[in-house]
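Minutes, methods subgroup
Present: GH (chair), OT, SY

1. OT presented the first of two proteins processed in the latest run. Sequence and structure tokens recorded below as shown on screen.
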Amino acid sequence: MTQYLPPNLLALFAPREPIRYLPPLDKLPEEKRTDGYSGISSYVQLFEDPADTPPPARGETREEKRLRKMKEKEEMCKQKLENEVEEWDAHSNASATSNAFKTLFIARVNYDTTESKLRREFESYGPIKMISIAHDINTGKPKGYAFIEYAHERDMHSAYKYADGKKIDSRRVLVDVERARTVKGWTPRRLGGGLGGTRRGGPDVNSRHSGRDDPSGNREREREREREDEESDRRERDEPERDREEIEIARGDVTEGIAAIVGIEVIVVTEVIVGNEGTTRQRRKRRKRRPRAQEER
């Protein structure tokens, strides 16, 4: 049958050429002749003197490498901070207010607070000339602080005295004078300056209070703010429940009025339900009946 195959398929079954014989490059182990094994006494004089041997190289451990990188990073950040402090100049800011002694600094501002909201809250102390909210250069998002310039310096002092701790958009703001252009040698918090002791070091050095006032001499004010915050939170929790009860009562009054007009008798059953938080609310059940005229038919 194979003789009928085409030449291209017959070439697949053709035998290959025989492998060419090459003599071995070396003798086999059993064909080699050796003089046997000898000691190393003849080579001892060639060894290096132990006094001239350098100490073995010690590798760096993982912990040492981590500490080295941490130290290098700290030095780099310290050098970068020193350069930024030398280059920083508060008077060269183009977006700053015109008069630093009439400018009020507002910190801890809610990120959703707008300029119009700040104007409504602080315009009660006097006419406002300019409001500048700080934004991030790269992302454009607000940083949480702003500057307000008043038309008169006395209005700024009034706001500085009475507006500190004011609650705006569920956050208590911190009010202070502008210190960058009024205090010599002042540097912002990002450059290692600023007020407060919350970022000095560890928990044994840092203070839990942050602001312009020392809590040791103003404990009563802090307690009053805490009580106001608790009362505000409680009112916010109770408002939805109270509004729901008023809506249900109003809906029941409207239903009874409509039923009286069309001649339908409405039976209102009131139940008192005690919730998990001890609050009570009323639930009304209504049942409609046919008019008496229809029942007689």
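2. SY then presented the second protein from the same run.
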Amino acid sequence: MITTSNRINYLTSWNPDARVLEKLNGTGFESLHKLAVSDFKDTSLVEAFVQFYNVDEGCFVFNGHKLILSLQDVRYITGSPVNGNAVTGVDGNARDLCHRHLGSELNSEEGFSKSMVKTGWPRENYEKLDDNANEEKIAQHTRAYVLFLIGYFIVPFSNGKFVPAMYLSLLENLEEIKDYAWGSALLSHLTCSIEKFRRERARCIHGSFYIFMVNWGPYRRRRRDLIPCSIVHQEQVFLCPTIVLCYIKAIYHCPDLVPMQFGVRAEHLKKTFPGLFTLHTEGRGGRAKDWRVYGIYRNHFQMWQNRGNQIIIDSQRMLEQQENQQKEERTAESVRHAYFSTSTCRSTENTLGGNGL
């Protein structure tokens, strides 16, 4: 049996103040505490599922059929934004980051390392918000709550006991939290862990397994008029081959491998991606690295920045074929209508004739 760092049931352990939720309105974080999921103790489904992951092809393969965990799945299932600024930036010291963004002085008794804090530490220290708290206090409690959600849901780390404090640097301006692709970070972190499990036969998979605990229908298309407005503007990235980042974690997102999964015909595909090649990543090491420009990550970051130019659909060709298909459907409908009209008339004539009328 494998173990996981999934701690989604802990999300309900923090009942956030209404003023905190107001600050997070529209970010995707404001509703995570409402996820009603039982404790995920039985990992047999995950264990069986990940055995089908092909590291070389970067996807799951079931009896010759390919399937990926996609940005579309993450957005629809979790509600987390998948298009926006990459979740990356400058690494930093936990004590300095907590002092700057949370107004807190960490001490050794509270359990932290140079770069991490205990995942439960934000709730223990920031769940209660005074009635007369000023804007700065509310902002600090909001950042602490988001760090808590990151550690338990977006990127559950290691055994689930710690969360990297570096994410606090992305939370300085609360108005900009919604601009980051947190769902993309979730996918990158989870996929990297699955790949490590398959390559190294690790005993633990780190990641948010919420997507395995819902009625997942990757080939089921949704009516566009039923898609929330907050999701519609993010649809373009669903069809973009790109590199998805979460600081040191980097994975390929390759919808062109599985066009059927996105309701796209193979003949509509546009060759935009150079294909899979060795994706180099590193261990954290050192301090104060800017993962947007450090080493090979500069190229990874630029590919994400240019994701809008990599959409897999040949839109002109697809539009032409859709128009032809619509003409064929209208012609077929006219033929059916004429046939049934003729058949009805003949049936009526036979009935009247048989009655001697």
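Chair's summary of item 2: Strands lie at 3-4, 53-54, 59-62, 65-67, 116-118, 162-164, 204-205, 242-246, 249-253.
Next meeting: continue with the remaining queue.
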